[in-house]
């Protein structure tokens, strides 16, 4: 396992939502009529089990995701944080983040009082027609009110927006993003809409009832996104994430992108700890259905454990590391996994202007970022 001093994050998956958005492929369930007390108890028991596995390690971040964790009662959030602090300890300046629905702005004060300092607000769009198509339960006015409330309460606020929506033009996205940037936020997560298998959007697309913009339009929107955010002082430190300097970047998400360690609790949560060269990287997936997870936590079997091979770990590190503007260090990749990128492919992509090789560091160019996933598959060892 990793040394106790290595950074460790905690991901908390709250699976319940007031409604299921048609583009979402996460492990989510309707909240209506649910008794959430057994789930909270199971998550705390699962967290204690993780402490037995990892040993004493301070947490550098705790991130509440989902689902809609802003549906959690403040006392439930506080219970998770108190238990995490007691079992592990929170490192000085630990990032405590939570993903929130703008429709729940009345809960924000309680969430802040529970200990959350970074709020990620799922705005998704700034026009009512698009919000309705996306299945959101808030309108533009509600989103703006929620942003104002969040900025008044939380030291760090980010918003999510989705672009390349059905019927959206490049000009419309430019105007929408310009408006969002005008609120002076220090972090924006800007995602291109993808039609994920099994979602309601996928079913509509199969029937021809949902038409995404052409690839060239989506690419133009990506270029607009990079230009406008950089002009506003928000660096594109990751393909979809933009921050005003390192201090405002998502410290928790950087654990994923840099191949660091994190543990996950809650139905369907994933975990990665350790390194193959030092005894095997441990991966885990929590049971996905809330009822099964609750039963499993009572028996100590809520998590399905597996050993991630050095090759698999290297492939993950390349896939995630290329998402960062800084790329990844090949020497660190070799040290952690014993594997390196495909040199011939790396040189080919460099000649094509898609990849920059600077000493041991490999990073995508702005043009390369449009093809990040495909380039990662080609570059990864064994790909």
Automatic annotation (TrEMBL):
Keyword Transmembrane belongs to the record: no
Which InterPro entries does the protein's record reference?
Coproporphyrinogen-III_oxidase, Elp3/MiaA/NifB-like_rSAM, HemN_C, HemW-like, rSAM, rSAM_sf
Keywords on this record? 4Fe-4S, Chaperone, Cytoplasm, Heme, Iron, Iron-sulfur, Metal-binding, S-adenosyl-L-methionine
Please give the GO cellular component terms listed in this UniProt entry. Answer: cytoplasm
Q: Where in the cell is it found?
A: Cytoplasm
Domain (Radical SAM core): residue spans on this chain: 2-235
One matching Pfam family is Radical_SAM
Q: Has UniProt tagged this entry with the keyword Cell division?
A: no
Please classify the protein's predominant subcellular localization into one broad category: cytoplasm
Q: Which PROSITE patterns match?
A: RADICAL_SAM (PS51918)
- Signal peptide segment: none
MF terms per GO, please?
A: 4 iron, 4 sulfur cluster binding; coproporphyrinogen oxidase activity; metal ion binding
Q: Name one GO biological process term.
A: porphyrin-containing compound biosynthetic process
Q: Describe the task this protein carries out.
A: Probably acts as a heme chaperone, transferring heme to an unknown acceptor. Binds one molecule of heme per monomer, possibly covalently. Binds 1 [4Fe-4S] cluster. The cluster is coordinated with 3 cysteines and an exchangeable S-adenosyl-L-methionine.
Q: Which family does it belong to?
A: Belongs to the anaerobic coproporphyrinogen-III oxidase family. HemW subfamily.
Q: What is this protein called?
A: Heme chaperone HemW
What organism does the UniProt record list as the source?
Answer: Marinicauda algicola
Phylogenetic classification of the source organism: Bacteria, Pseudomonadati, Pseudomonadota, Alphaproteobacteria, Maricaulales
